[in-house]
Amino acid sequence: MMQTRNITDLQSANALTTARRMTVIHPPSFSPFIVFTGLARLRQHLDLLWTLIVHRLKVRYKQSVLGPAWAVVQPLFLMLIYTVIFARIARVETGGIPYPIFAYTALLPWTAFSSALTAATGGVTSHADLVKKVYFPREILPLSYIAAALVDLMIASIVLWGLFLYYGVQLTVFALWGLPIILIMITFAAAVSLLLSALQVRFRDIGMAMPLLLQLWMFATPVVYPLSAVPEQWRVFYTLNPMVGVIENFRRVMLEGIAPDYVSLGIATMVSLVLLPLAYMYFKHLEATMADVI
Amino acid sequence: MNDLEFNRVSKRYLVPEEEAQVAAGSNRLLSKLKSLRKSHKEFWAVRDVSFQVARGEALGIIGHNGAGKSTVLKLIAGITSPTAGEIKINGRLAALIEVGSGFHPELTGRENIYLSGTILGMSRREITSKLDLIIDFAGVREFIETPVKRYSSGMYVRLGFAIAAHLDPDVLLLDEVLAVGDAAFQTKCFEHISRMREEGKTIVFISHDLHAVESLCSRTILIHRGELVANGAPREVIAEYAEVSSRFTQSTAEVVEGTIMSKEAAITSLSFESAEGANHYRTGAPLVARITYTASEPIADVKFGVYFYAENGELHSQFTTEWDGERIDLEPGIGTLTFLCPALSLQRGIYYADAAIIKRDAADGVVIDWQPQRVILCVDFGKTVRGMFYMPHEWHLARHGETKDESSAENILVETS
């Protein structure tokens, strides 16, 4: 049985009801059209998305001593750990770039991606009570976590800037590519978290598997080692992971000050742009029965 | 002009049957994986229900727990989707299903107003314009910058309702919300809802509180086992509800609410009567309850029980034949047991009653049959003024210094049967 919310907003011809919006609810039917009706509904609830983003940030640091400094602690300590392992012990070849800055430049977007995904995947199930009692577009829940993770990314960027000063890294005009690269990452993170958060309503296993999955994913992405360390014959397959295009190119434009690799960036863009509407459709498809199974 | 229309709406739930599979001793993972594919039991929570609510009408929806009332509400609110049919809503809808929805304990009262308000569908600008009204309605002005985790439960509930009360919808859905807060706040909520009615808002009200339904609603529908069985004036539909609930459709379930039943005999009905006829019960007036049963085999030494519950399901009083000494042995066939109460002590209100047959000799009393909380008893005003319950009583006045015999009938001012 196809189960998708299908709400059509009609403007009634009746003069009495011109100010009112007529909502007609039908049994769910699966069609790409739900992307548009879904977005129209989402637009009516943008204030909720905004309130929840602010709420995430406020709640996260209430009753914590370090507060927003936690946004920096994670990438910073990971950088220190990886520096010890991969620069002192394993000696990864970074092409002359000091390892701490090599790692931090990649860990900055990676931790944003991984913490966004971890929180967003549980976004719907952690609000089970609300989902059972109130209607609002459910995608707001995972999306609000992604937006909140981006604020952490901004805070952690201050440390990157400090490291650049310390190591005397000169930003070039290619650093401007940093913004579209982050946008691609957000698109991809949104797509993946829509898929996973909807699936988690049915299968709590997803949440259990997330830490392991993200760990594996990080090692399948050039975060702690450069792309050049990957054998040539595996590159094509390897680059299908959109995070490769994101992380490698973020490092290229920020740290190395050179143009991005358009092939890997193109793949990441394509995958994200195709995946997002599909993921949204799938999410809306499952949304119709979320309250029944959560 | 209808603000809400239900056109042949049905809702089916698929209930997984994994428990049975695990019990069969099969591999747990395997059965779990199998259950992804099939073995779902169908359950129609709402079946082919149609009704309309005109603008300015207040519709009450009544029915037993699990009859499908809440599903109807969830369908209107958009929380879940129908399996068949069509629902039309004209105008802005607000569902007040539970107060304090989306409150976060760490946030202040003010922050929670914005959070809960936007969850319920208000815009931030709208909330800002109503902020003072909400704070004053809830009466929490001094604590508005305090995290709500430090609020008393009363303050919490008041704030939750205050937000919801200021949604200003065209169509308002209410689910048991009046059952919150203290008496004074409940009155305030009730007045607020009555005012919304006067303003011409369309209201859909789901409640166990039949008195609230009667005083608030202009029309009532009765949902029984997912189907609409009555639609009309509240008083008549409530009477119909009482009627429906006393007719037992014999369930073959051997386990109800965790009680295992042996089913050698079955209770076929539990009905009430009074001197004024069915459905007219008054505090202080005599009440007769009749339990009819069918026994399929001889059962020695049983006891019957009649139980009365408050609206919230709390047990009010329990009476069993055991206390009155006489031994009861059931013969195969049909019988009636009559319970005579000379003066009903229950105050005006709605009560639920049920009956059970229990084996006496067994250590923990094996239940033969029990039909939980099925029958409704609506009690009207009678011989009481205020308080929790009525007591059969007499008044005697003795004037000191007079020579008359105190026990003479003339001194009894009031005698109560």
Task: Describe the fold and architecture.
The complex is a heterodimer of chains A (294) and B (417). Chain A contains eleven helices and two strands; from the N terminus they run ββααααααααααα. Chain A is mostly helical and 294 residues long. Chain A has one domain. The longest helix of chain A has 32 residues, at 262-293. With 417 residues, chain B is an alpha+beta fold. Chain B folds into two domains: 2-243, Rossmann fold (3-Layer(aba) Sandwich); 253-380, abc- transporter (atp binding component) like domain (Coagulation Factor XIII, Chain A, domain 1), CATH 2.70.50. In chain B, 24% of the residues lie in helices and 36% in strands. Chain B has helices spanning 18-23, 28-37, 69-77, 109-119, 124-138, 153-165, 183-198, 210-216, 234-246, and strands at residues 2-16, 40-54, 58-62, 84-90, 93-96, 171-175, 202-206, 219-224, 227-232, 255-256, 259-260, 265-273, 281-282, 287-295, 299-309, 315-320, 328-330, 333-341, 349-359, 367-370, 375-380, 394-396, 412-415. In chain B, β10 (255-256) and β11 form a beta hairpin. In chain B, α4 (109-119) crosses α6 and α5 crosses α6. The longest helix of chain B is centred in the middle third of the chain and has 16 residues, at 183-198. Classes of the chains: A mainly alpha (294), B alpha+beta (417). At the A-B interface, β2, α2, α5 and α11 of A face α3, β4 and α4 of B.
Brief write-up:
The complex is a heterodimer of chains A (294) and B (417). Chain A has 294 residues and is mainly alpha-helical.
SSE layout and pairings?
The complex is a heterodimer of chains A (294) and B (417).
Chain A: E1 6-10, E2 22-26, H1 33-44, H2 46-61, H3 70-89, H4 99-121, H5 128-133, H6 140-167, H7 178-202, H8 205-219, H9 235-239, H10 242-256, H11 262-293
Antiparallel strand pairs in A: 1-2
Helix pairs in contact in A: 2-6, 3-4, 3-6, 4-6, 4-7, 4-8, 4-10, 6-7, 7-10, 7-11, 10-11
Chain B: E1 2-16, H1 18-23, H2 28-37, E2 40-54, E3 58-62, H3 69-77, E4 84-90, E5 93-96, H4 109-119, H5 124-138, H6 153-165, E6 171-175, H7 183-198, E7 202-206, H8 210-216, E8 219-224, E9 227-232, H9 234-246, E10 255-256, E11 259-260, E12 265-273, E13 281-282, E14 287-295, E15 299-309, E16 315-320, E17 328-330, E18 333-341, E19 349-359, E20 367-370, E21 375-380, E22 394-396, E23 412-415
Parallel strand pairs in B: 3-7, 3-8, 5-6, 6-7, 13-21
Antiparallel strand pairs in B: 1-2, 1-4, 8-9, 10-11, 12-14, 14-18, 15-16, 15-17, 15-19, 19-20, 19-21, 22-23
